[in-house]
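dude i think i finally got it to work??
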Amino acid sequence: MNFTSTAKFDKIREITKQFKIFHNTSCNIGSSAAIVPNGDNNVIYASKQFLDSIHFDLTYFPLKHLGYKFVVVVISDLLAHNAIPAYISVQLNVSNRFSFADIEELMSGVRYCCEQFEIDLLQFDVGTSQQGLVATVTAMGNVEKSAMRSLSGAKENDLICVTGDLGAAYAGLLLLEREKKVFEVNPNMQPDFEGYDYLLERQLKPEPRYEIIKDLKKYNIEPTAMTLVSNGLAAAILHICRASQKGCQLIEAKLPIDIVTFQALKNFNIVATTAALNGGDDYELLFTIRPSDIEKIEPLKKDVSIVGYIKEKNAGYHLITNDDKQLPLTSQEFSPIE
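look at this
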């Protein structure tokens, strides 16, 4: 099975539209989370499965970091709905090459993340696997109905905002894969990561954007739409545009790319803009705000960048390049962990 990002969600829509809804729930296509009404609140559920040698490589991924990242990836889907994660469940399936000490090490990363963000572990079980390590992590949280955000809701002329910087995790992955190949040829060679600590951390130990959710509330900023950047900025904004039935215009000069990321990608002969648009594992928040809120976002300018504008639907999806050319915006799915 080989779907592009857009085609994949088209196929998912075809399948899910055949299901009847018997309760007051919502099947959120493309958002990676489910919504269940509960009085004045919505309960948000997100679940992901992580497969050995597909979503992670234990050659260079420490088990403790992996456990931490499992939780970050799943709870970030809740944050993208403006919900605060409260509970998680973890199901591990392991082959006989994993010891109990290995399981303890992985779960120590899960525990550390839970302690950092005050999340309760509701359920944990271990089963067998013929395919190395398989982890299924589910997160649950609450949000007031009036405060919940989703893919739809963006309006024409809204500002497109993204947290942090983009492409660093992808650059970190390239470095790890490069050194893995060197090690396979010569196990005595020491890895060469000098100057790239930031990129490795973004890949091995990303951080959820809790502080942004709190700051948006603090400064009375109400996003009109919100999602998670997990497979590149292009895929994320296209999901918002499709759900909101709008077009968009991204501005290359405004894309937040760290200088270390830029230099590392240059060494791999990769254009940094390409990595920002189509890289993976950023786990930043992408949201749209009303033009009238531009002054409110000013205190967050160190953590939030305005990278473009929402257009009317017929305007299409475009990137304005540094040399002022208008190019079609497309998505090439890249998914180390999705």
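Residues 333-338 have pLDDT under 50 and may be disordered.
im so relieved honestly
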